[in-house]
Amino acid sequence: MRIQAKTGYYAWDDAPGTRSDQAIDSAVGTTFDAAEIGLRAGLSMDANGKLRLGAHIDTRDIVLVHDGERYNAELRLGIVGYVPGVAPMRGPVIPVDLHLSPQDRDRALEQGIAFVRDLTFSQQVETVRLVVFDRVSNAIGSVTVPVPVAVPGKSKDR
Q1: Could you give the C-alpha distances from 43 to 6, 7, 52, 53, in angstroms and in order?
Q2: What confidence tens digit (pLDDT) does each residue in 118-144 have?
Q3: How many angstroms separate the CA atoms of 131 and 135, rounded?
């Protein structure tokens, strides 16, 4: 048997998380949403004017690696606020590592993965974008939601 292949091994000196940051930053700068990972999201405003993001991630669009008794996934999320004429405001990358039992996996495939986060953006923010990056498949999805206009308790779903 003869194998013809390049010799050597090359490891890149990228810091941990660099690939996630680059993927999320690429989605931040676009005017449209990425569709590889299905997302639904809504924003609600409480009586004090604080925003809450509620989202569901389509589990069928991410890779769940079967490892013994668990199904694992490595997601990275970015939340971005947009104000017209100003650079996008992106917070830190949020790691969401899943370790699901077979029953939890089945439920997640049926219902999706819920994500809720209270937001602290300036009052000038008009839209918020949630970006989800799957570190296993390199798939990315995003959804942009308009900020509700001072109607406490109301939610805008997209």
Answers
A1: 51, 52, 6, 5
A2: 998 877 899 999 999 999 999 999 999
A3: 13
Those residues whose C-beta lies under 8 Å from the C-beta of residue 87, and which sit 6 or more positions away, are none
Residue 60 carries which side chain, given as an amino acid letter? R
Q: Please, are residues 116 and 53 in contact by the beta-carbon 8 Å criterion?
A: yes
* CA–CA gap between residue 33 and residue 23 (Å, rounded): 13
The per-residue pLDDT for range 84-117, each reduced to its tens digit, is 999 999 989 999 999 999 999 999 999 999 999 9
Residue whose token pair is 């805008």: 156
Cβ contact 24:133 at 8 Å: yes
> Any idea which fold 18-149 has?
Immunoglobulin-like (2.60.40)
Nearest to 42 by CA among 122, 121, 125, 144: 144
Q: Does the reported pTM lie above 0.85?
A: no
Distance CA 127, CA 155 (A): 13
Residue 61: name the closest of 132, 129, 13, 117 by CA.
Answer: 132
User: Which residues have C-beta within 8 Å of that of residue 133, sequence separation ≥ 6?
Assistant: 20, 23, 24, 75, 76, 77, 78, 139, 140
